[in-house]
Amino acid sequence: TRIIQKRFAKKGVKCYLCGSYNHKNNKITSSKMSTKDTAFYSNKQAFLVDFSGKNISSEGGVFLLEKIERNHNIIKNLSRAISDKRHQSYIYHDVYKILKQRVFMQALGYEDANDADILKNYKLFTSVFSGTIASQPTISRFENAMTKQQIFTILYAWLDAYIQTLAGRKTITIDIDGTDAETYGQQQLSLFNGFYGHTMFNELYFHDGDTGQIILPVLRPGNAHSNWWYVSILYL
């Protein structure tokens, strides 16, 4: 996928990658203009997707993630449930930005926080974060600062978002499924499961049986029995 970021200017549109104003069809008269290859607009810049094969990047999925987030504000709504106890005078990356970066990293296959040291040099990735991203120490402090109370607050925020979609529904079917997420290393809660035969997280998902929406995701220890917790969660 070739990604081009175009900047609005009086004399035309500037390509973010090469700095040229000489691309074909480079006149944009309105920021509301919509084209089939435009992912989104940000700060008077158009982010375009092109498949011609030049200036290839394997991180094009970050634009799709950004567009989904802009349409649904899933991460933004969850970030509001997280209290920020840091000294406000020293904050460079707010909670929403750090959480969005962490989610995008996971979705693109960068599971480790220290992968930020690599991604900070990828202009395509940093472009959706206003040019800069949080470092590994910042991400690690953010993750380790989570308390049990905050985790439950996030879970309730997720549930509230689902409940808001239920207008007009008379019945709800809840599907409950557990799945193994094989792990490598010494992650917390990563334990051996005799049934699956490897170290893992035993993830639990509550799905809407009619729409497929995830009502609630729950992370369980790898050695958890398949029937752990779901009854007590239904009573919450």
Class of secondary structure makeup: alpha+beta
What is the mean pLDDT? 80
Beta-strand content bin: 15-25%
Largest sheet: 4 strands, antiparallel
Strand-and-helix sequence, N→C?
Answer: EEEEHHHHHHHEEEEH
Number of strand segments? 8
Trace the largest sheet across and list its strands. 2-1-4-3
Radius of gyration: 21 Å
Low-confidence stretches: 1-35
What quaternary form is this?
single chain
The 3D shape can be described as globular
Helix content: 25-40%
Number of helices: 8
State the end-to-end CA separation. Answer: 45 Å
Account of the protein in words:
The protein has 236 residues and is an alpha+beta fold. A hairpin with a 5-residue loop joins strand 7 (198-208) and strand 8. The protein is built from 8 helices and 8 strands, in the order ββββαααααααββββα. It is globular and about 50 Å long. Strands 2-1-4-3 form a 4-stranded antiparallel β-sheet, covered by helices on one side. Strands 5, 6, 7 and 8 form a 4-stranded antiparallel β-sheet that branches.
